[in-house]
Amino acid sequence: MNRYDYIVVGGGLAGLYTAFKASRLGRVALITKADIHESNSYFAQGGIAAVTAADDAPVDHYSDTVEAGRGLCEDEAVRVLTEEAPARISELIEWGMRFDTEADGHLALALEGGHHHKRILHAGGDSTGRMITSFMIDSVLATPEIEIFVNHQAVELLIDSNGCRGVRTWDWDQSQEVVFYGKHTVMATGGSAAIYRRSTNPQTTLGDGIALCYQAGCEVRDMEFVQFHPTALYNPGGEAFLISEAVRGEGAHLYNSKGERFMQGVHELAELAPRDTVARQIFMEMRRLGDEYVYLDLRHLDPDMIHKRFPTICARCAELGLDMTDRIPVAPAAHYTVGGVSTDLNGCTAVPHLYAVGEVASTGIMGANRLASNSLIECLVFGHRVVEDTVSRASSVHLDNLPKQVAGTEPKDVTIYHTIREQLSKLMTHHVGIIRNEDGLLSVRSRIEELRRSLCGVNDLYASFAEQLLIVAQLIVQGALDRHESRGGHYREDYPETRDAYRKHSSYSLG
After folding, report:
1. Residue 391: which CATH number?
2. Looking at residue 37, what is its pLDDT?
3. 97 and 22 in one domain?
4. Which of 103, 119, 250, 420 has fewest C-beta within 10 Å?
5. Which residue numbers delimit the FAD-dependent oxidoreductase 2 FAD-binding domain (predicted)?
6. Are residue 182 and residue 218 in the same domain, yes or no?
């Protein structure tokens, strides 16, 4: 029987950091459904937000975060993030993480959309996520108290009267079920943006952790707030490739096909307005002119600076025959799940001994729209808090009277899963994207119900995974239907105004 002090599900920065921290207190099982290098954290380009400069302050970081959150941020959660972020950065540096520096040795700080101060740390130019995640992977691999189980997909959280006791998984390599029991289970499975056809996320980022927590009795909130990154490289027939917020932070401009710079006059920060504003304006320009993309123009910037600051993006553009120092075609793509599993300030969910951290969680920081580069630092601040909380509860948690292991169904017919995923991606993209309306949302809800009925009586693990997709889609759609206003990452063309009556969270649970 696999028994551990900690079970961490998810191999992004939140999972890696939490597992490493927890390893000092006991044995850890780190479970990932894909390769450990495949996560949103790994592909994050822009950077990590934290106050490190003398002319900046946590209260300013707080103000920018709350402004971007459009009235739905939880004040105390934002204070926790902004006040504790510097300590987590200092900790990483003490462990040996190297961030980019200026010639004088001070940390190199960048500006991104929604920030009024340069406070974005980066590493390897535009490879911050890869550098931090790789650093944590190396740290985890060197820690004998952590056992890593790759290609193990979570199937069910094991719940009894004592709370969460572990997780049932499917081992794709060995084609067998594996059950893990633990004193504390931490979900760090990321978001759900890959449920859309055009997304900056790895194709495995489908919200399965959110669905599992929902099925286990957790509250899920604010799923209607889906952040679309304004500038993903337009590549017909290919996957969307993120063009970092930092490119606009260095001064790049947005133009439509008529050569008009359209963000001026829309927001005081122009191209550096919060992401929801920029993405929506790009979408409207595309729709108005019948185009599939707009242009991100860098021709007025220093080419040497661009190559040095954005080596990864320059290389990707070159592979596609594009010159990043000129102008490149971009269009919005689903990027970040703003809502998620409700937690308190220590990552606790409604189910005892079950935690959520990172993009899968809804801590109250993001509100209705995430401020750029707050995601990576959230992983550190709340990963630390999760582990600290387990210390205070250690004496009351025991691995006895565990629920009996019940064998599940095997995956047999992948067709049913792929069929539902393909249909959902079309529906979500066409009707639950940047701009929504009631007719489109109702049509998607009706179709989800039809697809769910098609799974009735199907005894196949692939049907369970398809059901997870439907749960996530249903939560997004229902939140969008119930919110009769436009706010942050949720825009209803039939309710275009922000309304005080909806300055509240949307929340759903099975209880």
Report:
1. 3.50.50.60
2. 75
3. yes
4. 103
5. 5-376
6. yes
Q: What is the pLDDT of residues 74-91, one digit of tens each?
A: 999 999 999 999 999 999
The two three-digit tokens of residue 342, written as one number? 């409700």
Locate 508 and state its tokens. 């759903």
pLDDT value for 405: 65
Please check whether residue 478 is in contact with residue 445, taking contact to mean a CB–CB distance below 8 angstroms: yes
Catalytic residue among 88, 168, 248, 275: 275
**Is there a single domain that holds both residue 214 and residue 98?**
yes
Task: Note whether 41 and 338 are within 8 A (CB).
Answer: no
The pTM for the full model equals: 0.92
**C-alpha span between 242 and 245 (Å, rounded):** 9
Asked if 387 and 435 sit in the same domain, the reply is no
Q: What tokens does 4 get?
A: 């551990």
Q: Are residues 475 and 438 in the same domain?
A: yes
Q: For 326, which DSSP code?
A: S
**Domain assignment of residue 371, yes or no:** yes
What range defines the domain where residue 315 resides? 231-333
The tens digit of pLDDT for each residue in 476-498 reads 999 999 999 999 999 999 999 99
H/E stretch holding 332 reads strand 327-337
Beta bridge partners of 169: 154, 178
Instruction: Indicate whether 499 pLDDT > 60.
Output: yes
Which residue type does 495 have? Answer: Y
What share of the chain in percent tops pLDDT 90?
Answer: 81
Is the pLDDT at 226 greater than 70? The verdict is: yes
Closest CA to 473 of 224, 154, 155: 224
Buried b (16+ CB within 10 A) or exposed e, 34-56: bebebbbbbbbbbbbbbbbeeeb
Looking at the structure, tell me whether residues 353 and 457 fall in a common domain: no
Q: In what order do the strands lie in the sheet with 109-110?
A: 48-49, 120-121, 109-110
Q: The domain spanning residue 324 has which CATH number?
A: 3.90.700.10
Specify whether the CB–CB gap between 358 and 10 falls below 8 A. yes
275 assigned to active site: yes
